[in-house]
TrEMBL record, chain A:
<feature type="domain" description="Ribitol-5-phosphate transferase FKTN N-terminal">
    <location>
        <begin position="1"/>
        <end position="278"/>
    </location>
</feature>
<keyword id="KW-0812">Transmembrane</keyword>
<dbReference type="GO" id="GO:0008285">
    <property type="term" value="P:negative regulation of cell population proliferation"/>
</dbReference>
<dbReference type="InterPro" id="IPR007074">
    <property type="entry name" value="LicD/FKTN/FKRP_NTP_transf"/>
</dbReference>
<comment type="similarity">
    <text>Belongs to the LicD transferase family.</text>
</comment>
<protein>
    <recommendedName>
        <fullName>Ribitol-5-phosphate transferase</fullName>
    </recommendedName>
</protein>
<dbReference type="GO" id="GO:0098528">
    <property type="term" value="P:skeletal muscle fiber differentiation"/>
</dbReference>
<keyword id="KW-1133">Transmembrane helix</keyword>
<dbReference type="Pfam" id="PF19737">
    <property type="entry name" value="FKTN_N"/>
</dbReference>
TrEMBL record, chain B:
<keyword id="KW-0333">Golgi apparatus</keyword>
<dbReference type="InterPro" id="IPR039474">
    <property type="entry name" value="POMGNT1_PANDER-like"/>
</dbReference>
<feature type="compositionally biased region" description="Acidic residues">
    <location>
        <begin position="68"/>
        <end position="80"/>
    </location>
</feature>
<keyword id="KW-0472">Membrane</keyword>
<dbReference type="GO" id="GO:0016266">
    <property type="term" value="P:protein O-linked glycosylation via N-acetyl-galactosamine"/>
</dbReference>
<dbReference type="GO" id="GO:0047223">
    <property type="term" value="F:beta-1,3-galactosyl-O-glycosyl-glycoprotein beta-1,3-N-acetylglucosaminyltransferase activity"/>
</dbReference>
<comment type="pathway">
    <text>Protein modification; protein glycosylation.</text>
</comment>
<keyword id="KW-0430">Lectin</keyword>
<dbReference type="Pfam" id="PF15711">
    <property type="entry name" value="ILEI"/>
</dbReference>
């Protein structure tokens, strides 16, 4: 009896064992195909770092967004940088499996995603579902800046930021809103009084310190550490935008107050000028952007933006500033090709360069080149008749984005200082007669061009 | 255990040779029993471990998979979780469970105060005549609805019956009469008042004063009444003071299943009354419609601006029809409310839409005009990518194929510069003059009432010179002015895709609406395929008109065009009549003809180069103004154009109305 039993047991065990082995093989294959690369590579232990809290939080967040159709893409600077460096690897992993968590397991406090608000169809209830999945979420809302420019509208508040915490890691979801001028805007992360300041280390957030503006990025789908995410098609371009993305809103309230005091000029001529100035500005912006030359609104155009959020109808020209290190000789040709012939050229690249182009309807485009000194910046002026040189001094400034006549353009961030330097403390009062050689408080005589150079530094067309 | 003999089970499988090999091997081993045993246990152990490891692995992978799949139903979890989280909100005993209500009724003044707060006060002269009705929430005491029914005038009692029937049972009803409220208070209304338990209401007489507080479905909480002593005098003022016990919140609310939609519904229904079955406990009417999507919807991403004032019931009706239209995308809709009114905002929130309030800055028509400007600017700011915007008003019903109609025609606006707008409304499309839902026209007038605006037109032309507030202009009259329209035309359908149900508007009175809007034809057929849309382009349309005129049968011009027999009793024919029109702006005969055809005659609408197109008795009927119209060339020399004399000016016609 016992003999038979023993044999039977042995046979049975062998049978079950091989059956299990087959089953295991089958199961493993099945598992791999469902997880598509995210599965276990061999058995346990060979996957490095995949149990990190960062990876798990990101994974859960991606599951949430894909199941709820939340249109997000990855904008985390740290991870985008890593992806950018190892781009080939990210591309190749889409089919196979990863054995090492290289990107999402990097220690950090936040992972940053952007939400494309205009593509979001089911906003409702999403927040609750996130909380139900174990996230602790914070929503920062504010009024819609797109309604600010319009007299006395008050709408539903729009979400600006979501911060969702899972264990020790947090997902920072920056809400990107579409703005007129074909760009994406995100708001300032301002904490309301009742919000727990220790919820996450807010100081370490990379977005939200200021409002920001970005070009609308094209997106691509990649698999990073076994997780499928959307990232900007050109991660490098996006990364370069981040440090210079600060956006300032036009001061609509002050502009309204200004118009209450000085009534808007709605004559046919004023409207015609505004229209052609706007078109000229748009054409100039297009031309310079194509060349990759950074520019900002200067002088009267900047004053118009700051004081009345519009083009000053009696200013008769459009003024732009460009740093001299961004000067390219192609600028002149490009403008000529765009239908804006050179009207005059004063100075030279080394000193006091200034270009003027002739736009349609007698509107002129002035481009001033700015030079840097240790404690200030300046641009030059030249009197054609006498060859006299002038120097206009400005306190040092950086550039910010803003929206002006349906365009995303740069202005000096320190706008008030810039305008006060140029127009004095009384810039709020409209002045129709302005002498470029005498009126600005920041003008300094700067000697005379030597006659021998006149041919080069005073070119009139 | 002593001998290791071939097992009978294995025996039959072994081949003869194999067996001998096996046996030798076996006998060799018999001498090393210890080793053999060791091997045996080793094998058993190994097999056991394999089995256990396998089972564990299977369990592990299964857990990993289920973890990955745990999210398909988070919504359900969420609902469950919330079910636990939401305890009865205002359970039991607040310090005060009784409301102290005062109701005053007299000839020239009515007021209602709840707990010392005046919720209604009306002592304006020549206004607010009739029965004022206030509905309070029985749990909170909040005012949920405030209405006045001028039951001195006809039909107002019907509106009151409609309203009172919609109020949910258990609500606190307060009625008070100002001036006169009995003259047109008919039996149905009186019976309803009786069913509420009122004694004096059903017996209300000429110029009686009356104050009533009761719960819908009983009991009466207080009533006072004073009879008018004579025809020429009023009843004495009455002041009713009564206590209204509050009930618990659970009783005041319905027990709908807890979903996102029902949470919106609950928020809405605990605040306002008078919206009928949307707040019904048993079988509430849906607030989400999910109409069929449109295949190849060209207007899916076109923003829709709904311009509204403080007529929340209209807005409610309008949004229902809009959200039921095929191809609607709710996230593209924005409702712009002219003023800080709460109730329209509540209606917007009920449907989960975006609402924006606009502070009034100007008066009357100019205010409407400024509201339009702010709304249009905001729409293009909120949707910077949009090339068009659909503009709707709160007093329109939207046809089920509204978006399908636009989707099929919107490319015209892109391709044809000579177009000003596409409108869903045919000014001349009455029940008896419109027939073909697949037919489109080009007209020189701008009908409005549901239309599409091109962004470039707004941004480049209209916005910069929009009339400023101090110019008291109507926006639509301004848009129709030649300086703005510049000879461009609008596309309209023969059968309107919107229906103007508004009565209590800024520009209209009831009689006017009855005469000019009620009998308007409104398309109810879904998915109408528009015919030959590209023939609406400038040049193609001329070809089309010439073709139509060539095949049209000329009517007998000796007959009276106002009579039905002017057109033969046929179907599907095309007829043409020629009327006198000396110059481009000579509409004398047309206006008379429009009047007797009972179509729009207050100004000239629906014309295209001196040609009007409509239907009569299911026949296409063309009217050409001779000699001003270029189509006059089609007139046979023998025909004398019809001339109709305008009547002498003394009629008391309702010409007060300005326009739509």
């Amino acid at each position: 009896m016992s003999r038979i039993n023993k044999n039977v047991i042995l046979a049975l065990l062998t049978l079950t064992s091989s059956a299990f082995l087959l089953f295991q093989l089958y199961y493993y294959k099945h598992y791999l195909s469902t997880k598509n690369g995210a599965g276990l590579s061999k058995s346990k232990g060979s996957r490095i770092g995949f149990d990190s809290t960062q990876w798990r939080a990101v994974k859960k967040f991606i599951m949430l967004t894909s199941s709820q159709n939340v249109p997000v893409f990855l904008i985390d600077p740290l991870i985008l940088e890593l992806i950018n460096k190892n781009f080939e690897q990210v591309k190749n992993t889409s089919g196979g499996s990863t054995s090492e968590c290289k990107f999402f397991c990097v220690p950090r406090d936040f992972t940053v995603f952007a939400l494309q608000y205009h593509l979001w169809k089911n906003e409702e209830g999403w927040f609750q579902i996130a909380e139900n999945m174990g996230f602790q979420c914070l929503r920062i809302e504010s009024k819609d800046p797109r309604l600010d420019g319009i007299d006395s509208l008050s709408g539903t508040e729009i979400p600006l930021h979501y911060i969702c915490r899972l264990a020790t890691h947090a997902i920072h979801l920056v809400v990107f809103h579409e703005r007129s001028g074909n760009y994406l805007w995100h708001g300032h992360l301002r904490l309301k009084r009742h919000i727990d300041r220790k919820f996450v280390p807010f100081r370490k957030l990379q977005f939200g310190r200021y409002p920001g503006a970005f070009d609308r990025p094209e997106l691509q789908r990649v698999t990073v550490d076994g997780l499928e995410v959307l990232i900007p098609k050109d991660p490098m371009h996006f990364l370069e935008e981040i440090p210079h993305s600060r956006f300032i809103e036009c001061r609509y309230k002050e502009a309204r107050a200004f118009f209450q005091q000085y009534l808007d000029d709605n004559t046919v001529e004023a409207m015609a000028f505004r229209k052609s100035a706007k078109e000229l500005l748009q054409l100039a912006a297009k031309t310079l952007n194509k060349l990759g030359v950074q520019f900002w609104l200067s002088s009267g155009t900047c004053l118009g933006w700051y004081r009345q959020c519009n083009i000053i109808p009696y200013s008769k020209d459009v003024d732009l500033g460009i740093f001299i290190q961004d000067y390219k000789p192609e600028i002149i040709v490009a403008f000529q090709d765009a239908g804006l012939p050179l009207k005059h050229k004063f100075g030279k690249v080394e000193d006091s360069l200034e270009l003027s182009f002739q736009g349609k309807d007698d509107v002129k485009l002035d481009i001033f080149f700015f030079y840097e000194d240790t404690d200030h910046m300046w641009n030059g002026g030249t009197q054609a008749k006498t060859g006299k040189k002038f120097k206009y001094l400005f306190p040092r400034f950086t550039l910010c984005w803003t929206e002006f006549v349906d365009m995303k353009v740069h202005v000096p961030c320190e706008t008030l200082e810039y305008i006060e330097a140029n127009y004095g403390k009384t810039w709020k009062i409209p002045v129709k007669t302005w002498d470029w050689k005498r009126s600005p408080p920041n003008v300094q005589p700067n000697g005379v061009w030597p006659i021998s150079e006149w041919d080069e530094v005073i070119q009139l067309y | 255990m002593d001998d290791w003999k071939p097992s009978p089970l294995i025996k039959p499988f072994g081949a003869r040779k194999k067996r001998s090999w096996y046996l030798t091997w076996k006998y060799k081993l018999t001498n090393q029993r210890a080793l053999r045993r060791f091997c045996q246990t080793g094998a058993v152990l190994f097999l056991l471990v394999t089995v256990i490891v396998n089972i564990k692995l299977i369990l592990d992978t299964r857990r990993a998979i289920s973890e990955a799949n745990e999210d398909p139903e988070p919504e359900q979890d969420y609902d469950e979780a919330l079910g636990h989280l939401e305890p009865p909100r205002r359970r039991g005993s607040g310090p005060r469970r009784v409301l102290d209500v005062e109701v005053y009724s007299s000839r020239s003044k009515v007021y209602v105060a709840v707990d010392g707060t005046t919720v209604l006060e009306d002592e304006a002269r020549e206004q607010g005549r009739g029965i004022h009705v206030i509905v309070l929430n029985q749990a909170t005491g909040h005012v949920m609805a405030k209405r006045v029914f001028d039951t001195y005038s006809p039909h107002e009692d019907e509106a009151m019956v409609l309203f009172l029937n919609m109020v949910a049972p258990g609500r606190v009803l307060i009625c008070t009469v100002k001036d006169e409220g009995s003259f047109h208070l008919k039996d149905t209304a009186k019976a309803l008042l009786r069913s509420l338990g009122s004694q004096a209401g059903p017996a209300l007489g000429w110029r009686d004063t009356w104050a009533f507080v009761g719960r819908k479905g009983g009991p009466v909480l207080g009533e006072k009444h004073s009879k008018s002593p004579a025809l020429s005098s009023w009843g004495d003022p009455v002041l009713l003071k009564t206590d209204v016990p509050l009930s618990s919140a659970e009783e005041a609310e319905c027990h709908w299943t807890d979903t996102e939609l029902n949470r919106r519904r609950r928020r809405f229904c605990s605040k306002v009354e008078g919206y009928g079955s949307v707040c019904s406990c048993k079988d509430p009417t849906p607030i989400e419609f999910s109409p069929d999507p449109l295949p190849d919807n060209k207007v899916l991403n076109v923003p829709v601006a709904v311009i509204a004032g403080n007529r929340p019931n209209y807005l409610y009706r309008m949004l229902r029809s809009l959200l039921s239209a095929q191809g609607v995308s709710p996230q593209m809709i924005t409702v712009f409310i002219d003023g800080y009114y709460e109730e329209p905002m509540d209606v917007v929130a009920l449907f989960g839409l975006r609402g924006i309030q606009h502070t009034p800055i100007s008066i009357k028509n100019a205010r409407v005009s400024q509201h339009y400007k702010a709304s249009l600017t905001a729409t293009f700011n909120l949707f910077p990518e949009a090339k068009f915007a659909v503009v709707l008003e709160e007093d329109l019903d939207i046809a089920v194929d509204f978006f399908s109609f636009l989707s099929q025609s919107i490319h015209l606006l892109e391709e044809d510069d000579s177009l000003y707008c596409i409108s869903a409304w045919n000014d001349q499309g009455y029940e008896h003059t419109a027939e073909d839902p697949a037919l489109l026209y080009r007209v020189e007038t701008m009908p409005g009432l549901g239309w599409v605006l091109r962004k470039s037109l707004y941004k480049e032309e209209l916005e910069p010179k929009w009339p400023t507030p101090e110019k008291l202009w109507d926006w639509d009259m301004w848009m129709r002015m030649p300086e703005q329209r510049r000879g461009r035309e609008c596309i309209i359908p023969d059968v309107s895709r919107s229906y103007h149900f508004g009565i209590v508007g800024l520009n209209m009175n009831g009689y006017f609406h009855e005469a000019y809007f009620k009998k308007h034809k409104f398309n109810t057929v879904p998915g109408v395929q528009l015919r030959n849309v590209d023939s609406l382009k400038k040049e193609a349309y001329e070809v089309e008109i010439h073709r139509l005129l060539s095949e049209a049968e000329v009517l007998d011009h000796s007959r009276n065009p106002c009579e039905d027999s002017f057109l033969p009793d046929t179907e599907g024919h095309t007829y043409v009549a020629f009327i006198q029109m000396e110059k481009d702006d000579d509409f004398t005969t047309w206006t008379q003809l429009a009047k007797c055809l009972h179509i729009w005659d207050l100004d000239v609408r629906g014309n295209h180069r001196g040609l009007w197109r409509l239907f009569r008795k299911k026949n296409h009927f063309l009217v050409v103004g001779v000699p001003a119209s270029p189509y006059s060339v089609k007139k046979p020399p023998s025909v004398t154009p019809i001339f109709l004399e305008p009547p002498p000016k003394e009629e008391g016609a309702p010409g007060a109305a300005e326009q739509t």
